[in-house]
């Protein structure tokens, strides 16, 4: 993270009240469990198996099996001897590289160790017991954990019949909402919310609220990015990560992009320096002009091949543009998940509002071949736990629940 320069005058201006407020926030931040996709996937795995075999097919955590690009690996390797030193210049280079590419001022970009930290910090900064957290359902759950810590009411708004965020319902969910969270493409469905819909949310949101747009999976899709709202100085924070298309989930680097006054509120919850290897790898990845197109095509080809097989076998799924999708098993999703693990194939978790669906990560060609074999065997099973499950009445006509 960019260093904060404090000279004598700055220290004088840093009043006792500010110090106490920062110290209190820092104390809270130190006790905040940052929930990531890795935690959620690992918790699901541990419910069935204590040890994951080395040869297991792991398509449960939206990881990129390609890993970092060759240039990023070289950057990491070259910096290992320098691992004993801090290097803020590398962080500044990452910020300037990204801001130059996107036509942003550097002060609108703040780097973190992945995008989970700024996701949590944004929720903590802008929600409270009087300012609810509004999210899509099914949607990525990490923000809800942060909202619980802030004491905020959590409002889950069902996706539309087209699997997009119902932005009109989200805007109307509570006039005092603090954060409206839009993951685009959505995790777990992999589906898109249009730029026009997001523009509606930005223009009609509750006064004083922030639109938090998580673009972790944006590079896999044809979705229009939302950085234009940041450039227009709207109450918007956009999250980007190097964990997905860039294959750096285990390296940890991400960005929060927003107006400086919004980003400043996040800093009260954490201002740690970043690992120099992660920062250098992220910068090198950005500088690889062909990387996004190449990896987007690889993922799209494998995803399309999988969708064709699912369609041929009459299996229903969400029309994803991401590296994950939701698959309707027509049965108890948790039982299907457990049965797949018995075949050494680890698939994603179940969302309570869609009990028959499981999330599938797009893996390698080999991963998906093994998935298809295992899934067909599981679906042919006649064991009691895998009997077809009738949908609740409210889910029979549409793939989503209703806001209660």
From TrEMBL:
GO terms for molecular function: pyridoxal phosphate binding; transaminase activity. Gene3D superfamilies: Aspartate Aminotransferase, domain 1, Type I PLP-dependent aspartate aminotransferase-like (Major domain). PROSITE patterns: TAT (PS51318). It holds the Pfam family Aminotran_1_2. Keywords: Aminotransferase, Pyridoxal phosphate, Transferase. It comes from the Bacteria. Residues 104-371 form the Aminotransferase class I/classII large domain. InterPro entries: Aminotransferase_I/II_large, HistidinolP_aminotransfase, PyrdxlP-dep_Trfase, PyrdxlP-dep_Trfase_major, PyrdxlP-dep_Trfase_small, TAT_signal. Belongs to the class-II pyridoxal-phosphate-dependent aminotransferase family. Histidinol-phosphate aminotransferase subfamily. This is Pyridoxal phosphate-dependent aminotransferase. It comes from Alloacidobacterium dinghuense. The lineage of its organism: Bacteria, Pseudomonadati, Acidobacteriota, Terriglobia, Terriglobales.
């Amino acid at each position: 993270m960019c260093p904060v320069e404090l000279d004598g005058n700055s220290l004088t201006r840093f009043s006792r009240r500010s110090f106490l407020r920062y110290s209190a926030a820092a104390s809270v931040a130190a006790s905040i469990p940052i929930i990531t996709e890795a935690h959620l996937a690992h918790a699901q795995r541990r419910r069935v198996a204590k040890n994951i075999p080395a040869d297991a097919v792991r398509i449960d955590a939206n990881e990129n099996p390609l890993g970092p690009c060759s240039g990023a690996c070289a950057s990491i390797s070259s910096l290992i001897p320098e691992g004993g030193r801090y290097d803020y210049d590398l962080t500044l280079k990452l910020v300037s590289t990204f801001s130059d590419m996107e036509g942003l001022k550097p002060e609108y970009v703040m780097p973190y160790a992945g995008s989970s930290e700024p996701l949590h910090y944004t929720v903590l900064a802008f929600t409270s017991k009087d300012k609810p957290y509004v999210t899509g359902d099914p949607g990525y759950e990490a923000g809800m954990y942060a909202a619980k810590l802030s004491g905020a009411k959590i409002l889950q708004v069902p996706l539309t019949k087209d699997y997009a965020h119902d932005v009109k319902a989200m805007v109307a969910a509570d006039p005092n909402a603090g954060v409206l969270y839009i993951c685009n493409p959505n995790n777990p469905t992999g589906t898109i919310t249009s730029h026009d819909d997001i523009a509606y949310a930005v223009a009609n949101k509750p006064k004083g609220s922030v639109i938090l747009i998580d673009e972790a999976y944006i590079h896999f899709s044809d979705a229009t990015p939302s950085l234009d709202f940041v450039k227009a100085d709207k109450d918007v924070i956009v999250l980007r990560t190097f964990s997905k298309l860039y294959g750096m989930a285990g390296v940890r680097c991400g960005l929060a992009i927003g107006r400086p006054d919004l980003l400043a509120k996040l800093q009260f919850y954490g201002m740690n320096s970043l690992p120099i290897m992660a920062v250098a790898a992220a910068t090198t990845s950005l500088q690889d002009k062909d990387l996004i197109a190449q990896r987007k095509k690889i993922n799209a080809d494998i995803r399309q091949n999988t969708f064709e097989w699912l369609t041929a076998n009459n299996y229903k799924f969400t029309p994803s543009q991401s590296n994950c999708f939701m698959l309707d098993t027509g049965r108890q999703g948790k039982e299907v998940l457990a049965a797949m693990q018995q075949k050494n194939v680890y698939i994603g978790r179940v969302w309570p509002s869609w009990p028959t669906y499981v999330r599938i990560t797009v893996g390698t060609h080999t991963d998906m071949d093994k998935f298809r074999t295992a899934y067909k065997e599981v679906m042919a099973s006649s064991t009691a736990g895998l009997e077809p499950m009738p949908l609740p009445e409210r889910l029979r006509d549409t793939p989503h629940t209703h806001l209660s």
